[in-house]
Every structure is written in C-alpha cells, then in structure tokens.
Amino acid sequence: MSKMKLFDLHCDTIERMEELGENMLTDKTQLSLKYLPEIEKWCQTFAIFIPDSKRGADAVEYYERVRAYFHKMLKEHHDIVEMVNTPSDIETITAKKKCAAILSVEGAAVLDGKLENVEKLAKDGVKMMTLTWNGENELASGHKNPEMGFTDFGREVVKEMERQNIIVDVSHLNDKGMEQLMGGIATKPIIATHSNLRSICSHKRNLTEEMFQYIVEHKGLVGLNLLHNFVSDNEMKDSKAELFCHVYRMLELGGEDVIACGSDFDGGIESQMDNPAKFASFGEYMLENGISRRIVDKIMFENALHFFEENVR
What we know:
The chain is α/β, with parallel strands linked by helices. The chain has helices at 13-20, 57-76, 88-95, 116-124, 152-163, 175-185, 209-217, 228-231, 239-252, 276-280, 282-288, 293-311, and strands at 6-8, 42-49, 81-83, 99-106, 126-130, 167-169, 191-192, 221-224, 259-261. Helix 11 crosses helix 12.
C-alpha cells in the first residue's frame, strides 16, 4: 500500500496532550506525530477546544494555557513539526517531511464577549474558529438550543473574523444559525471542519444537503468526521464503508472541490480509522472503490490546500 497525503482540518489532541502532560510522540492519544513516517505529506489543524463550561476570564485562561502548551510542543519537536503562519508555509514545511501545524479554536467563548479579541486571535496565528460548541455562547448556539439565532455581537464577530482573515467554521452551529449565516451574515467562504451529511446519518450536528450545497456554491470546505455518531445511525461495522457513503453522496451533490478531512481525533472516535495513518489509508479505500486518483488527492489534501491558498493571508 502506497503512502497517502493527509490534510486534517480538526482534532482535539493538543488539549488532551496538555491534560496528560504528554508530548507529540505519545501513544496515549489517537493523534500522534509518531505516525509521520507513514504519511506522504501531512498538514494537521490543532484546535483549542473551549468547553461549554468555560466562560469569560475562565475561557481566556484556558485558551492561553493550552496555547502555551502547543508552542512548547512545537519547540520540543521542531525537527518534525512547524506552525503554519501563511498558506505557502504548508508546502514548505511538508517538503521537509515535517508536519505542518495549523492553530484553530473550537468555541467563540474564547473571545470573552469582546470584539477586539478577534484581532488578538489573528495575531496569535489562529486561522479558523468554530463559532459554537453544543450549547449557547455570546454569538449563537449549537444544537442544544435550536431556537437561538445569532446575537448582534455574533454578527459583528463574523464580520470581524472575515476582516482579520480568520475562517468561519460552522461545525456545531445550529440550524437557525446556519440559516442566518447563509442568508447574508457570511460574505466569504465558510468551512464545516468536522461535519458529515444528515441525509446519510441523522445527527443534528451533520449538515443538511441544502447546507452542503451552499458550501459548494460558495467554494468552502467540509471535513469528513470520523466520530461514529456522525457517520452512521446504526452500530458501526465497517467505518470506511460507512464514511464512503457520505463521500459518494457529497460527490453526487457536486462536492468534488469541497470535500476534505476533519477527523475529530481525541474527540471520542471509535473507528477502524483511529489514528492519522489509518485515516490516510482511507484514500486507498476510495481508490479501490472507484474514486479516481485525482479526486482522492483532492479529498485527502488538495482541496484544503487550495482553500487556504485562496482564503487565508
């Protein structure tokens, strides 16, 4: 089996490493850089996840603590990983057989309700921010409150994120928020970093086909999530085959240029693809099941790379 590329838009691993006091070569997390030799070219987004229990100064302190650990790990493993500051860094870093690390945030409670903190995140090198987790924050809500739409502050944050070149990530945003975002709040392409199709798996965290087609039309990205609850409504027997169902339907909906990878490693994955090397091997599975090499390369790496080149400064 040949090596495959991997551009993964989401994992929760840096928080888990900080919690355990482990480094990036650990065998105690699903995502570990020990798999680097098994992947041809690897770009990995590390999300700093802000739990719904964290608000205000507590959320800010939590973010800063995990961010400091991320930079500690970058320094400790400088021979195998470097942080991405500009899109051109991705090709430069991966050409050196290192992992290109992108910093993101999951949960806009990190802003502490202050618009100026969007610029602060941009200066920290954050390239994407998931607007909500499952509950409410100062911007909007996840699926736990389906009635809540965007607040005035949330609308201003989206505008400021676009101005600061932080990509709006809609994974976890509830349907009402998505409807409003698609109705004109967003003026630039958006990403669903770790979401699948609701027509294949009914979880409310997945995208409707209408949402997916909006992202297609507006040249965004959708990262395939490996978490069982978002892959299949049934007991999982063959996670590759079940994830392939999402890919097949996404392709039918015109998604050739927007399908990407968004593992959600260390977010609770129980899957045949429970580490980066196994996820990369999903490319081989797609080839074996009739997807062309050109499209497989797009899904596993090139779509995300092109998006960053076009939309991140």
